[in-house]
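Render this sequence as a predicted structure.
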Amino acid sequence: MGNKISYLSSALLYYLVVYPLSLLPLSVIYLFTDVLYFILTRIAPYRKRLISKNLYKSFPQASHAHRKKIKRAFYQHLCDLLAESIKNISISERELRRRFKVSNYSILNKLYAEGKDVLLVSGHYNNWEWMITAQNILFRHQAAGIGMPLSNAFWNKKLNERRARFGMEILSANNLHEFLGSEHPKPIATLILSDQAPFDSLKSYWMNFLNQKTPVFFGCEQLAHQYNSAVVYFVINKRKRGYYKVDFQLICENAKDMHYGEITEKYTKLIEKAINKHPEYWLWSHNRWKRHIPENLEALRIEQQEKFEKRFPAVKKKLNTDSNNVTNSENPKSIQYAKF
């Protein structure tokens, strides 16, 4: 009974409030979220303690005043992101193309011409929802995206339906390998947002990220080896309010040419670089560091590497002289943060 009530109330909220609101010009929707920004900063701050803790641990050398400025800017971005996510429900292809541009098609076009499947990897930085929706109309590859199902059945169904309306294939743990392993009329580009907390810290790749020992989702690297996919990092940059540009950087064309952990290290450091440049655009309200650190990270890393190399024997072996793994570093090098 409770599930039915939740489903019906969510449907009423969608059809009576959210969808009609999405039909308004984005400039008008921003007016509503500007009110929300005032509430979040002056009356009822959303996840204030968690955001403050994340910023303190990520930028320990920053002043309290500077972290406070980042937090206020993040709240503004979060409210803008909400407005743009609402607009995403009904945004037209024409308007999406006008607001979401691509700076360099050459990397993906080359891989497409070679018939190469691609893993597009990044984090929850700037407007990832528009990237999901626009992917199949911007690039020649067949778009696919790996998503975690929402607990609310109505919103899970409706949001995936809206995300997929321009041709994006929404994948989950249940159909991921069946889809990637089957024949397709053209190469696939699978989008992976890999910067949130993994479910299992013992199956994660541990590294230093934003001045903290952090478990990182390792699925992208495993998929790259299993399906011989190229890996391309993308970053979404904000041009101005409501306008974005996506840039690409090749991580590898052939996973077997990379050492164990090298793919994960490279794209995670690129995510970190983007965050340090404009920290306000990352999702600080996510409880990113909620997993406990295993007692012996070095032993865990060795065990994981042995299992990985047994499963994928073609992986490029790393020489002992080249094995200063950041997992075992007790004093990670301080990173620079942006001032704005």
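Summary. The CA atoms of residues 171 and 301 lie 29 Å apart. Residues 319-340 have pLDDT under 50 and may be disordered.
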